[in-house]
Structure prediction request, 416 residues.
Amino acid sequence: MDKILVEGGRSLKGDVKISGAKNAALPILISSLLTDGVCTYRNVPDLKDIQSVKQLLSHLGAKIETSGDVVQIDAAGLFNHEAPYDLVRKMRASILVLCPLVARLKRARVSLPGGCAIGARPINLHLKGLASLGASIELNHGYVEASADFLKGSEFYFDMPTVTGTENLLMAAVLAKGVTVLRNAAREPEIVALVEVLNQMGANIKGAGTSIITIEGVPSLKPVSVSIIPDRIEAGTFMVAAALTRSDIRLLNCEPDHMKGMIHKLRQTGSDIQIEGKNIRIKGADEIRSIDLKTLPYPGFPTDMQAQFMVLMSVATGLSMISETVFENRFIHVCELRRLGADITVSGNTAIVKGVKALSGAPVMATDLRASASLILAGLVARGSTEVNRVYHLDRGYEAIEEKFGKLGAAIKRIR
Ligand code: EPU
Prediction:
């Protein structure tokens, strides 16, 4: 398996272009199942997870063509209603085909995703929601089997906001008979992006971006041609890199409105951040101030940026308290960061980080995408060389990460 080698201590300079958002692209590509014409998607990032979703959609009968960052999907010939274990195991977001398959083919058989490194991650709310729209659901041999001659609008209350849960139910409700109201829905920008695409396909959805979303079902949807929104987590990762290495860089093609929480927090650490339309310029401060943070559903601070901020706090002045409230086991990076010399104590869902003068490079690895990204960041600031193993996780969610850091002046290379 590939590894990435980072020599720490270089400062970064220049521009970096932010790619399309993985977590917006996945549901949007899957929404092509809801229509039977050719949909065109631009600004699709070249990632392992995108390859996995394309593999899954082809398995279901869709025809897919890719040219650069443009992906065309034609689900007219959709014939298969089963998402097998091998495909779902690779990527949990595969569960997003459940509702579109029931809406289009009246039935679906999708492998249960199971837990993963960051937590149990149940899908009970996806299933309860789909049942409330009239589907009958059974769990057999590790598979969810759902069927409905037709789906019927209903009111559904999410016990907690779930991003893919909200997306799945949106894709059930768009073709249901009557009106569906989703309460305590997730409010992430990726939800708003999916709703904009569905509305362009002819759906009638109101309230995206708030916790109450109302969907009036329509008989059919038409194909679209759309562009994927920029990846706020990739952008945030580069911003933390600049803050950590006290550098001056510019992020091109991002959406600062989606990043207010992290920008606010980075400013508190001392970074100077200027927003220039769709670009962001960040200059790291000589002294990194420690801050406390708590992850929360959007518009709170994103759990997908917690590991990266923990690295920043590892070399800040003073003590920082980081609470993870979204996933129960998202401190996988802590042990690895300790091996680089970080002083971190974990108690329950809170990590106490005591800033140290410097980290020192070592071989490391992680079993989660954002944890792996945090190790690259640690490598950029550590003394000596850091070898990040199991790069597979990084490739799931960061497009050409070593090339982008290399262009900014980092000493980083992939060893195949
Ligand atoms: N939850 C339930 N029941 C459900 C669904 C969720 O209890 O039926 C719980 C989860 O266990 C978790 C909380 O609700 O404690 C929130 O999870 P959510 O469902 O919102 O997460 P997700 O939809 O599985 C997406 C992103 C994650 C991101 C989270 C939180 C995609 C494909 N994935 O996951 O992204 O961390 O929302 O923002 O959109 C990543 O990109 O590295 C990543 C893990």
About this structure: DSSP finds 14 helices and 24 strands in the chain. The chain has a mean pLDDT of 97. The two ends are 7 Å apart (CA to CA). The pocket of EPU is lined by residues 23, 26, 93, 119, 121-126, 160, 162-165, 186, 303-304, 326-327, 369-370, 397 (CB under 6 Å).
